[in-house]
Design a protein that fits this description.
This protein is α/β, with parallel strands linked by helices and 328 residues long. The chain has 14 helices and nine strands. Strands 1-3-2-4-5 form a five-stranded parallel β-sheet. Strands 7-6-8-9 form a four-stranded parallel β-sheet, sandwiched between helices. Helix 8 (159-167) links the parallel strand 4 (153-156) and strand 5.
Length: 328
């Protein structure tokens, strides 16, 4: 179970099986019965506050090449606090998206900051694999850090962080306005603060991340942003609340599927390959990026189209130079 909510969405009698599975996993974790790779990841999170087992001091290294300083929201007030997340901070591919989002915010004149090494993983997937104690430890720590900072709202590029910050952190006293990057970008464009000077001119299919779309009903903003950037937006066969999971939810991004097992990511990228003339499969989640980009390789579809984050595409549309070669 990837905890994606697809079965609940389509169940004709409304069975809420997802929390049942999470509860069963808690009993397994309490009994010490879990995959060895998962156990190692949870131990890393307990030790370092992130699933990459990296030093906290490395969390903001991706900001070094930006050409401007990113405020530390722990020490100076900001309008928007960006909760970056693990993959967006440590994964080399996702770091590029993070740099693009920082440049977008900077260009739009948004007063933003991050928590630097004070941030730890929000814990959405930790809770989904059944490690409730560790989740509560992470949530309590982050809630205390947020309470000591001065900001008006929170934004995140990671739908998993978005889901838990928005829906679960209020029970820990961290009740703040939270939005995903796609809705913030949509608003910045509408207000004239973000100028898209180039038109992408490419055919793009948007993949709805489960934690952004089906679980939190954010469907239109990403599509509107892509259209504003001059893309021809087309739909995958399974889209919106019927979107198909990339395979990384429920902690499965940390545990490779067994050899010979049908992988959800490969099913999804093959679906995209059926669209004639597709240039880009767009995502809005760092875990979807990891799973689907890898799936294009294992499914033998590398080179058929690119997997790119919505934020990267917006950044390209901001540049004064033609973008066709960068996209294609």
């Amino acid at each position: 179970c990837r905890q994606c909510g697809a079965c609940t969405e389509i169940c004709p009698v409304g069975v809420e099986h997802v929390p049942m599975i999470a509860e069963m996993r808690r009993h397994l974790v309490d009994a010490g019965e879990m995959d060895e790779l998962l156990q190692n990841t949870l131990q890393a999170i307990q030790k370092t506050g992130n699933s990459f087992n990296e030093s906290r001091r490395k969390r903001m290294r991706w900001t070094r090449d930006l050409g401007f300083e990113v405020k530390d929201a722990r020490t100076e007030p900001v309008d928007v606090l960006w909760f970056v997340g693990d993959y967006a901070s440590f994964d080399p591919r996702s770091q590029k998206t993070s740099q693009s989002f920082a440049r977008i915010l900077h260009a739009a004149g948004v007063d933003f900051g991050i928590l630097h090494e004070g941030e730890t993983t929000a814990g959405n997937d930790v809770r989904r694999v059944g490690e409730e104690g560790l989740f509560q430890f992470l949530a309590t720590g982050n809630a205390e850090t947020l309470a000591a900072a001065s900001f008006k709202s929170i934004v995140t590029t990671d739908p998993h962080s978005f889901n838990t910050l928005k829906n679960e952190y209020p029970e820990f006293g961290a009740d703040y306005p939270v939005e995903h990057a796609s809705t913030l970008i949509e608003r910045l464009i509408a207000e004239g603060k973000l100028k898209l000077t180039q038109k992408l001119g490419t055919k793009i299919a948007y993949h709805d991340p489960c934690h952004l779309g089906r679980l939190n009903k954010v469907f239109d903003a990403p599509r509107n942003v892509l259209a504003q950037a001059g893309a021809e937006v087309v739909e995958l066969e399974r889209n919106r609340d019927n979107s198909f999971c990339c395979g990384g939810g429920g902690g499965r991004v940390w545990i490779p599927d067994a050899a010979g097992q049908k992988r959800p990511g490969e099913s999804r990228v093959r679906e995209a390959a059926e669209i004639d003339g597709l240039d880009v499969l767009a995502v809005a989640c760092p875990k979807c990026m990891t799973m689907l980009e890898d799936a294009t390789k294992t499914a033998g579809l590398e080179g058929r189209y690119k997997v790119m984050d919505l934020i990267e595409l917006v950044a390209l549309a901001m540049t004064p130079e033609p973008v066709e070669e960068a996209v294609l």
